[in-house]
C-alpha cells in the first residue's frame, strides 16, 4: 500500500503539489500511517456491519436462545451442539423440513440462475449491433432492476391470484387452460417463484454481460467474418471466451444471491408459504421467529454458510485450475 | 490470480451479507426515551383499517391527556407485523410502554419475563381485578401466576348467516354441525359462483382457532397438564378433518378460499352476498356494515357442534393490554391501563371496534341488534373455552395453523387429505413444538 501512495504522490503535477509533497516527506510517521488512517473507516464499518453480526450469529447457534432468555439473552445457557443436532436430525420434523427446504432451494437456484443467464446473454448479444431505438430497448429491459423489489413482487402477487389475477385471465382468453390454476399455493408455487425471481434477476445478468461485450475488440469479429465464421461460431469462439472473466463472477454472484433470496418468497407468499416454495432463508426465518427458537435458526444459518463456503471454494478451485491450464 | 481474488472477495462479501441478514434486524422503535410524561402505545388493528383505528383512538387519547396531563404517542400496528415487532422490542429492550397483544399470546409473552406482572398493587392501581369478567381476566397469563396482561376488548366466534337467503331456501338457522352443512349445501351453486360458506383457509391464525374449537367439541385437548403437546389425539385429528371437509367432502366453500390469508376476505364475501354463511369473531360487524349490509339483514347463532359433541362455540378471544417491565413511566402506564379499561372508555370503543365488554355488568354496544348482542354475550360467557394457557401456545398457533394452510392448499389444488395424513401433519407440528421447548 505504501508503495502505491508514493507512486500517487510523485505522479501528480510537480509544480503545485510540491509544498505538500515536501511536507509529507518530512514527516515519515504520517506517511506510514496515512494508508491505515484512510482504510480505518472501511475496516471499522466492515467489522460492525458484517463481522460482528456474523460472530454473534455463530455464538447464538451454540446457546439455547428461546423465549425464556430472549429478554436477557446474555444469560442464555449453552447448548453445545444441541441446536445442530436438531437441525440435521433428518428423522425429526425439524431436520426433515430443513432438508426438504434445502432441496427446493437447490432446484430454485439452479433454474433461476440458468434462466437469468440465458436471457441476459441473449438480450445482451441481440442488442449489441447498433440500430434505431437500441437505447430505448436497453432502458426498458432495465425496468425490473430499477423498480423497488417490493413493488414489483407485490404486482406479481396480484397478477398470480387465482380468480382475479391477470395471468389466469390471459391464459383463459388464449384457451390455454380450461380451469383456473392456483399459482401461489400447491405445486405451481415453485414455477411462480422461479418466474418472479428470474424476472427480477435477469436484467442484472443482462447489464453485466452488456458491459462485458463492450470490451471485446471489434477487430476479432471482423477477422472472424473474413474467415467465414457465422454468428453462432463467433459467439462460441469469441464472445464466450472473451466474456469468461465476467461470467465467472456473474454466475457466482447470481447463485449466492438466489440461494439466499428472502424478499421474493416473503413478499410473494406472505405468511402462507407453500411447501413447494419453501426457500431456505425463509424457512430459517420461520424456524426462528415463529417459534422463538433463535438458537436452532442460527445453527441452520451457520450450516447454510458452511455449505455456501464449500460450494464457493470448489467453484474457485475448479475455475482457477482451468484458467491456469488455459 | 487477480480474477480469483476478485471472485473470492465478491463471494466473501455475499456470504457475509447472507449470514448478517439472518442475524435479525432492529426496526426502529423509539419508545421509552421520550419526555417525562409521554407514553408510547402500540395499538393493534381493531377497526376497518389502520387509519380508522387512529381516528377512533385519537380523541380517546386526547381525553386521557386532558384528564391526567400525560401525553400518549400512538402507533397502530397491523396483525401481520405485531408479533415480530413485539419480539424485536423484547429482544432489544427498545420497547413501547404499553402494548396491545392478542390474548392467546399472553402465556407465551409472559414466559419472556419482559412484561410487568399485575400484582396486587398494580391491579389496585388499575381499578381492582373484580371489575373484569373472570373468564376474560383468566386469559391474562398462566394459571397461578400474576397475569402480565389484562383484558381490553372481548371477542367471540359466531356463525353469521344471511337471513334472506335462508328464508328463500326455507331453511332455519342451524343448531348442529350437520344442520349447518346441509344448509350450506343447499345454498351452494358453484356454477353461479354461489357458496354456502366462506373460510379464511389461508390464514394460519384463523385455521388454528378452528382446529382448537373443533377439537374441543370432540372433548379433546391440545396440551396435557404439564404443558406437553397432545396434538395427535383422535378427537383433534377428527376435529381438524371435519373442518377441512367443509371444502373437501361437503364442497360448500370455494377452493379459492385457500388463498384467503385473513378473516376480512371471507367476511367481505359474506357482506357482498357471495356466500350465505361465515364463521367469524364479532368484530366482523364493522366490516359487514362498512360493505353496505345493514344490521337485521344477517343473523348470528353459536358456531354449532356436531350432535352429541361438547357445546364449545369459540375460544375466549380478544385483545389484552400489557405494560413492558422496563418502562420508565410505570405509574403513568398503569393510569393509562386503568383509563382504557374504565367503563366510559370501554363504552366509547365498544362500538367502533365491535368488541364485547370485558367488564362485569357492562352491556354490549357493538350492535343495535339486541338478539345478536345477547347471543354473542352468551357465547362469550358460557360457550367459550380458553386456548391453552401454556408458554408454547404461540408455537401451537404457527405450527398447527400452517399445517392446516397446507392441507387446505392440497384440497384446493385437487388433492385429498385423509385422516392419516391429518395425523401425520399434526405429528410433524408436535415434533416442531417439542424441539422448540
Automatic annotation (TrEMBL), chain A:
Keywords: Cell membrane, Membrane, Sugar transport, Transmembrane, Transmembrane helix, Transport
Highest rank taxon of the organism: Bacteria
Pfam families membership: BPD_transp_1
Principal location listed in the UniProt entry: membrane
ABC transmembrane type-1 domain boundaries: 102-315
InterPro entries per record: ABC_transporter_permease, MetI-like, MetI-like_sf
Transmembrane segments: 36-60, 102-127, 139-160, 180-202, 243-260, 298-318
Signal peptide: none
Family to which the UniProt record says this protein belongs: Belongs to the binding-protein-dependent transport system permease family.
Protein name: Multiple sugar transport system permease protein
Single GO biological process annotation from the record: transmembrane transport
GO cellular-component term (any): plasma membrane
Biological classification of the source: Bacteria, Bacillati, Actinomycetota, Actinomycetes, Propionibacteriales
Subcellular location: Cell membrane
Recorded topology in the membrane: Multi-pass membrane protein
Region of interest called Disordered, as start-end residue ranges on this chain: 1-24
Automatic annotation (TrEMBL), chain B:
PROSITE patterns: PROKAR_LIPOPROTEIN
CDD domains hit by this protein: PBP2_TMBP_like (cd13585)
Leader sequence residues: 1-20
Record's keyword terms, sorted: Signal, Sugar transport, Transport
SUPFAM superfamilies the record matches: Periplasmic binding protein-like II
Keyword Signal: yes
Source species, domain of life: Bacteria
Cited InterPro entries: Bact_solute-bd_prot1 (IPR050490), SBP (IPR006059)
PANTHER family assigned: ARABINOSE-BINDING PROTEIN-RELATED, DIACETYLCHITOBIOSE BINDING PROTEIN DASA
Protein name: Multiple sugar transport system substrate-binding protein
Annotated organism of origin: Kribbella sandramycini
Source lineage: Bacteria, Bacillati, Actinomycetota, Actinomycetes, Propionibacteriales
Amino acid at each position: 500500500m505504501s508503495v502505491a501512495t508514493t507512486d500517487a504522490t510523485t505522479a501528480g503535477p510537480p509544480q503545485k503539489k510540491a509544498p505538500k509533497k515536501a511536507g509529507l516527506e518530512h514527516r515519515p510517521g504520517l506517511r506510514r500511517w496515512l494508508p491505515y488512517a484512510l482504510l480505518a473507516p472501511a475496516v471499522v464499518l466492515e467489522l460492525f456491519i458484517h463481522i460482528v453480526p456474523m460472530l454473534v450469529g455463530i455464538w447464538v447457534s451454540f446457546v439455547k436462545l428461546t423465549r425464556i432468555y430472549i429478554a436477557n439473552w446474555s444469560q442464555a445457557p449453552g447448548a453445545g451442539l444441541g441446536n445442530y443436532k436438531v437441525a440435521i436430525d433428518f428423522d425429526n420434523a425439524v431436520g426433515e423440513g430443513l432438508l426438504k427446504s434445502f432441496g427446493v432451494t437447490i432446484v430454485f437456484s439452479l433454474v433461476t440462475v440458468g434462466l437469468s443467464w440465458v436471457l441476459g446473454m441473449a438480450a445482451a448479444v441481440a442488442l449489441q449491433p447498433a440500430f434505431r431505438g437500441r437505447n430505448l430497448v436497453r432502458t426498458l429491459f432495465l425496468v425490473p432492476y430499477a423498480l423497488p423489489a417490493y413493488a414489483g413482487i407485490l404486482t406479481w402477487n396480484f397478477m398470480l391470484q387465482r380468480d382475479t389475477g391477470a395471468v389466469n385471465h390471459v391464459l383463459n382468453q388464449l384457451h390455454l387452460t380450461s380451469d383456473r390454476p392456483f399459482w401461489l399455493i400447491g405445486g405451481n408455487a415453485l414455477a411462480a417463484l422461479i418466474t418472479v425471481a428470474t424476472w427480477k434477476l435477469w436484467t442484472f445478468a443482462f447489464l453485466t454481460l452488456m458491459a462485458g461485450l463492450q470490451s471485446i475488440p471489434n477487430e476479432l469479429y471482423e477477422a472472424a467474418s473474413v474467415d467465414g465464421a457465422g454468428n453462432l461460431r463467433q459467439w462460441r469462439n469469441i464472445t464466450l471466451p472473451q466474456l469468461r472473466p465476467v461470467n465467472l463472477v456473474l454466475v457466482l454472484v447470481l447463485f449466492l444471491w438466489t440461494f439466499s433470496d428472502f424478499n421474493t418468497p416473503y413478499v410473494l407468499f406472505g405468511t402462507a408459504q407453500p411447501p413447494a416454495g419453501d426457500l431456505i432463508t425463509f424457512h430459517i426465518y420461520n424456524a426462528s421467529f415463529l417459534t422463538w427458537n433463535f438458537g436452532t435458526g442460527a445453527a441452520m444459518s451457520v450450516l447454510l454458510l458452511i455449505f455456501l463456503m464449500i460450494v464457493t471454494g470448489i467453484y474457485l478451485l475448479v475455475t482457477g485450475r482451468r484458467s491456469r491450464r488455459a | 490470480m487477480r480474477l480469483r481474488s476478485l471472485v473470492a472477495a465478491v463471494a466473501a462479501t455475499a456470504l457475509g451479507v447472507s449470514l448478517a441478514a439472518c442475524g435479525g434486524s432492529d426496526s426502529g422503535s423509539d419508545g421509552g426515551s421520550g419526555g417525562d410524561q409521554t407514553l408510547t402505545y402500540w395499538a393493534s388493528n381493531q377497526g376497518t383499517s389502520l387509519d380508522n383505528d387512529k381516528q377512533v383512538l385519537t380523541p380517546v387519547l386526547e381525553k386521557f391527556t386532558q384528564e391526567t396531563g400525560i401525553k400518549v404517542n400512538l402507533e397502530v400496528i397491523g396483525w401481520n407485523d405485531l408479533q415480530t415487532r413485539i419480539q424485536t422490542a423484547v429482544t432489544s429492550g427498545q420497547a413501547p410502554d404499553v402494548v396491545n397483544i392478542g390474548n392467546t399470546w399472553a402465556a407465551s409473552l409472559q414466559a419472556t419475563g419482559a412484561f410487568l406482572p399485575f400484582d396486587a398493587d398494580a391491579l389496585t392501581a388499575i381499578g381492582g381485578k373484580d371489575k373484569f369478567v373472570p373468564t376474560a381476566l383468566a386469559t391474562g397469563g398462566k394459571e397461578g401466576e400474576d397475569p402480565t396482561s389484562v383484558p381490553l376488548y372481548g371477542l367471540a366466534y359466531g356463525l353469521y348467516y344471511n337471513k334472506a337467503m335462508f328464508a328463500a331456501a326455507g331453511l332455519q338457522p342451524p343448531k348442529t354441525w350437520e344442520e349447518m352443512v346441509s344448509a350450506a349445501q343447499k345454498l351452494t351453486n358453484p356454477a353461479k359462483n354461489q357458496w354456502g360458506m366462506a373460510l379464511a383457509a389461508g390464514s394460519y391464525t384463523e385455521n388454528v382457532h378452528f382446529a382448537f374449537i373443533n377439537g374441543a367439541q370432540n372433548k379433546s385437548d391440545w396440551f396435557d397438564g404439564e404443558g406437553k403437546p397432545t396434538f395427535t389425539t383422535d378427537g383433534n385429528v377428527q376435529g381438524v378433518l371435519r373442518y377441512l371437509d367443509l371444502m373437501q367432502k361437503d364442497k360448500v366453500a370455494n377452493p379459492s378460499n385457500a388463498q384467503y390469508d385473513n378473516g376480512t376476505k371471507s367476511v367481505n364475501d359474506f357482506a357482498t352476498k357471495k356466500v350465505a354463511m361465515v364463521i367469524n369473531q364479532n368484530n366482523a360487524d364493522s366490516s359487514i356494515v362498512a360493505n353496505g349490509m345493514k344490521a337485521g339483514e344477517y343473523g348470528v347463532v353459536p358456531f354449532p357442534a356436531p350432535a352429541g359433541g361438547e357445546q364449545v362455540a369459540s375460544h375466549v378471544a380478544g385483545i389484552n393490554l400489557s405494560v413492558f417491565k422496563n418502562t420508565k413511566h410505570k405509574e403513568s402506564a398503569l393510569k393509562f391501563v386503568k383509563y382504557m379499561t374504565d367503563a366510559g372508555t370501554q363504552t366509547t370503543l365498544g362500538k367502533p371496534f365491535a368488541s364485547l365488554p370485558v367488564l362485569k355488568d357492562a352491556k354490549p354496544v357493538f350492535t343495535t341488534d339486541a338478539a345478536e348482542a345477547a347471543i354473542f354475550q352468551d357465547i362469550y360467557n358460557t360457550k367459550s373455552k380458553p386456548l391453552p394457557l401454556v408458554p408454547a401456545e404461540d408455537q401451537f398457533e404457527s405450527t398447527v395453523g400452517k399445517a392446516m394452510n397446507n392441507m387446505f392448499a392440497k384440497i384446493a389444488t385437487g388433492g385429498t387429505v385423509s385422516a392419516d395424513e391429518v395425523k401425520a401433519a399434526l405429528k410433524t407440528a408436535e415434533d416442531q413444538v417439542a424441539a422448540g421447548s
